[in-house]
């Protein structure tokens, strides 16, 4: 084993050359990296947010809230449909996923059922099947509800849509290199490196941007009754930014889904306003509604807040309109951005946020680099003191190759290097010399039992190998568990540790074999220096 | 060759003959007491759970270098907001690694029904009012739902780690070795928890990573001793088991010391120069490495004596199990 074989020399040299090629972009500035010829690798170390600064947001899609809303809309649809068919209802009971209607007069039972069945056939879910069904319960009662399949798919679709919408919003805000990933069933992770403003990020994703146009309830006593706590079943009490209350009909005339484009404009007084354009369906509905309600006020509502409540002067049939309100240029353009990006299907709740400034990240890198350098020096000094310049020096050279290979592997896989990852790196150095220690100690044992230099060195490598493999496999198991259960930085640590286990066994064993093999051939020693 | 200077190994005796097993009983009692104390400590006074595991917010507040950040005023300002348990702790500056009184960590709870962002903004403005302009460098907020999951995942990771290690050792070695190894692991994990409680360290995700690494290192150490033990059991068929154990530990002792010393030295460097974020992590690891080394000698190997090992290969155990007393089982 100690015989100097050609393939080992080639392997060590090749890994050194490839390692250097892959590792060296990490010491360059980004500009220098760009200037590298195309055939050279140019990926440097991929620093985690804790090292380069940035924001991490874990958002949860509020699926139950969205289901609630959808059921509320369904109730309103039922109410309006039955009223249009002049069917009197004695009661409506909300239940999970739908509503149970009690028809007031038995004679209208069939008519009511038919109306609702027709309605259910209009809405088609993602599976191609109707997503709502009507069923007679007897006793004048009809159940109208979302199918189980529709309820189940709402969650999954909501997360996909949310990711889409968040991506569009962040793209148009111009922030670069933001990673948006799905986590688990109903979570989204946003990682924004560098100097980006975390508050802006949260504002961008924290708003649902649900825009609706609804009629204002103009019954003479309606608002006062509602303020006294008697809100009619088909209306809701909302406020504007100043806290002025509005009683608004629940039925949505047109919503943001029907917008094709929004832009920043100016009103008559030259204050910022938002111009919008409906699609054909929206234009038709808006035209009908405005024609029927001339002279009455309607409310423009964004995320449950009334933006403005203008009175309809004339039927608006062209599908164009303008929203005026207390906008500044900045707030208007942010809103335009949100509207064009589309509404989130459900509110996103921030469950976890971690913000690290770039300076803090730079300090962490400096501390990490200093500790790595000092840790390295400590190991070098100790190994040379322990085993002398020859054997100690050989393990130091193995350690250097190990360091190069770790940086190379991290750059190649673009695995994230985190602060605990740096600690993992330093720990890897300490454990890397363990392989050398095991081999050397074994050689000493064998030499003391009277074997020749060659025989004891050979036995040292051979017999220590099993122990080295066993001992490192345990570290791998620990790293694997961290990978399975750990969050962000811990995974970074686990990955560094894993790479370190492979590179350290490779470099400490192989470099020692090649260098000591060469020494054996050239120096032809009579005694093993470390065995004296 | 004149190159081989004055190696330390010459200072260590060539061959040691410590009778480790002889003292195992005493150490077993000591270990057992410490382990029990550590486990009790985990419940009373209990672990100092960080925001990773109990939810809430932590932010770093710093004045420019040289200016003093008044911790009392800071504490007063945040406490006045009625945000549950507020902790204010002065730390070393990140850029100079010196504690000049200009930097602190503030931790507080975020009420369940309130918006995280709004609460953080309220805290920031209260702080500015109380102590003037400050910089915020690291802000973390963890919701109660996520923190609950992180805690259960962390506990799960530790449990799975111990179980996998047992399976691994039981697969590679006779099963008695597996029990010895796991006893050693539990001992190491318990005592490391004890240190975390004793030093009132904030128990965070990083410390779970440290504990898992301690488990890995402790196993690594145990495996080296067990490997030699297995080899010597084959080599010296008639030597009493306790002598084989002593011999194996002695033979691997210089390796144990050299690797342990390099690792601990490097971790001390990390604790001193690695900055605040890594201090708890590296102290925990350094302690765990020392404990792990001790346990491979005094917990893992002697426990094998309690069961004895089948050395004939034919199913008959020729080593008489030696009673060490119940105290040696942590």
Give a verbal description of the structure:
The complex is a heterodimer of chains A (532) and B (330). Chain A contains 14 helices and 19 strands. In chain A, the strands form five sheets. Chain A has a six-stranded mixed β-sheet. A four-stranded antiparallel β-sheet of chain A has the order 7-8-2-18. Chain A is α+β, with helices and mostly antiparallel strands and 532 residues long. In chain A, helix 12 (419-448) packs antiparallel against helix 13 and helix 13 (453-485) packs antiparallel against helix 14. Chain B has 330 residues and is of the alpha+beta class. Helices cover 61% and strands 9% of the residues of chain B. Chain B has ten helices and six strands; from the N terminus they run H-E-H-E-H-E-E-H-E-H-H-E-H-H-H-H. Chain B has a four-stranded antiparallel β-sheet. In chain B, strands 1-6 form a two-stranded parallel ribbon. Residues 1-5 and 314-330 of chain B have low confidence and may be disordered. Chains A and B meet through helix 7, strand 18, helix 11, helix 12 and helix 13 of A and strand 5, helix 5, helix 7, helix 9 and helix 10 of B. Strand 18 of chain A pairs antiparallel with strand 5 (135-142) of chain B, so a sheet runs across the interface.
């Amino acid at each position: 084993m100690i015989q100097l074989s050609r393939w080992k020399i080639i392997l060590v040299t090749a890994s050194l050359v490839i390692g250097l090629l892959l590792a060296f972009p990490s010491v360059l500035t980004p500009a220098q990296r760009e200037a590298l010829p195309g055939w050279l690798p140019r990926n440097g170390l991929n620093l985690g947010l804790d090292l380069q600064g940035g924001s991490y947001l874990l958002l949860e899609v509020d699926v139950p809230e969205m289901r609630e809303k959808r059921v509320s809309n369904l109730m309103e649809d039922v109410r309006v449909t039955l009223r249009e068919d002049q069917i009197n209802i004695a009661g409506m009971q909300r239940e999970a996923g739908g509503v149970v209607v009690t028809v007031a007069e038995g004679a209208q039972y069939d008519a009511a059922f038919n109306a609702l069945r027709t309605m259910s056939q209009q809405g088609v879910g993602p599976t191609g099947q109707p997503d709502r069904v009507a069923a007679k319960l007897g006793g004048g009662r009809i159940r109208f509800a979302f199918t189980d399949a529709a309820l189940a798919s709402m969650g999954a679709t909501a997360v996909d849509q949310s990711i889409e919408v968040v991506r569009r919003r962040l793209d148009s805000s111009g922030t670069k290199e933001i990673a948006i990933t799905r986590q688990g069933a109903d979570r989204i992770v946003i990682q924004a490196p560098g100097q980006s403003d975390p508050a802006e990020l949260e504002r961008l994703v924290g708003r649902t941007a649900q825009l609706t146009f609804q009629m204002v309830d103009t019954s003479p006593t309606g608002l006062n009754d509602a303020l006294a706590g008697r809100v009619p079943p088909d209306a809701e009490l909302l406020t504007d930014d100043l806290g002025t209350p509005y009683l608004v009909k629940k039925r949505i005339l047109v919503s943001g889904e029907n917008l094709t484009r929004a832009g920043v404009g100016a009103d008559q007084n030259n204050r910022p306003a938002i111009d919008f354009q409906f699609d054909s369906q929206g234009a038709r509905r808006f035209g009908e509604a405005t024609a029927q309600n001339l002279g009455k006020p309607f409310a423009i509502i964004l995320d449950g807040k009334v933006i403005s409540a203008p009175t309809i002067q004339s039927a608006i049939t062209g599908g164009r309109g303008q929203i005026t309100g207390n906008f500044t240029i900045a707030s208007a353009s942010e809103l335009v951005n949100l509207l064009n990006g589309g509404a989130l299907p459900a509110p996103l709740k921030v469950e976890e946020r971690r913000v690290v400034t770039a300076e803090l990240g730079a300090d962490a890198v400096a501390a990490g680099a200093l500790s790595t350098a000092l840790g390295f020096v400590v190991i070098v000094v100790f190994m040379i003191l322990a085993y002398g310049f020859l054997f100690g020096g050989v393990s130091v050279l193995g350690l250097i190759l190990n360091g190069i290979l770790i940086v190379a592997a991290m750059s190649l896989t673009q695995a994230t290097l985190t602060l605990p990852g740096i600690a993992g790196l330093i720990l890897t150095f300490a454990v890397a010399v363990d392989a050398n220690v095991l081999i050397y100690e074994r050689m000493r044992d064998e030499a003391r039992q009277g074997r020749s230099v060659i025989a004891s060195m050979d036995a040292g490598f051979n017999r220590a190998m099993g122990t080295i493999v066993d001992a490192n496999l345990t570290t791998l198991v620990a790293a694997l568990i961290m990978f399975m259960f750990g969050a962000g930085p811990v995974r970074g640590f686990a990955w560094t540790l894993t790479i370190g286990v492979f590179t350290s066994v490779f470099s400490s064993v192989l470099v020692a074999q090649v260098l000591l093999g060469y020494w054996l051939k050239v120096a032809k020693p009579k005694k093993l220096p470390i065995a004296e | 060759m004149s190159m081989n200077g004055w190696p330390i190994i010459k200072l260590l005796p060539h061959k040691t003959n410590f009778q480790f097993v002889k003292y195992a009983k005493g150490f077993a009692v000591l270990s057992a007491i410490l382990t029990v104390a550590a486990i009790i400590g985990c419940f009373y006074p209990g672990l100092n759970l960080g925001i990773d595991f109990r939810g809430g917010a932590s932010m770093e507040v710093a004045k420019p270098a040289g200016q003093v950040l008044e911790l009392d005023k800071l504490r007063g300002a945040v406490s006045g907001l009625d945000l549950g348990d507020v902790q204010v702790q002065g730390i070393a500056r990140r850029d100079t690694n010196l504690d000049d009184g200009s930097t602190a960590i503030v931790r507080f709870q975020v009420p369940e029904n309130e918006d995280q962002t709004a609460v953080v903004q309220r805290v920031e403005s209260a702080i500015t009012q109380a102590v003037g302009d400050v910089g915020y460098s690291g802000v973390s907020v963890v919701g109660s739902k996520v923190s609950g999951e992180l805690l259960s995942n962390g506990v799960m990771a530790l449990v799975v780690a111990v179980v996998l290690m047992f399976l691994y050792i039981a697969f590679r070695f006779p099963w008695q070795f597996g029990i010895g190894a796991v006893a050693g692991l539990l001992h190491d994990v318990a005592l490391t928890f004890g240190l975390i409680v004793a030093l009132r360290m904030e128990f965070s995700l990083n410390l779970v990573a440290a504990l898992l690494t301690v488990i890995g290192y402790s196993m690594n150490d145990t495996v080296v001793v067990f490997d030699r033990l297995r080899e010597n059991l084959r080599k010296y068929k008639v030597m009493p088991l306790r002598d084989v154990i002593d011999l194996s530990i002695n033979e691997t002792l210089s390796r144990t010391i050299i690797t342990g010393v390099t690792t601990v030295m490097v971790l001390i460097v990390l604790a001193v120069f690695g900055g605040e974020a890594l201090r708890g992590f590296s102290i925990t690891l350094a302690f765990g490495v020392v404990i792990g080394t001790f346990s491979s000698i005094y917990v893992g190997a002697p426990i094998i004596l309690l069961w004895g090992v089948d050395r004939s290969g034919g199913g008959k155990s020729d080593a008489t199990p030696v009673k060490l007393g119940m105290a040696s089982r942590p």
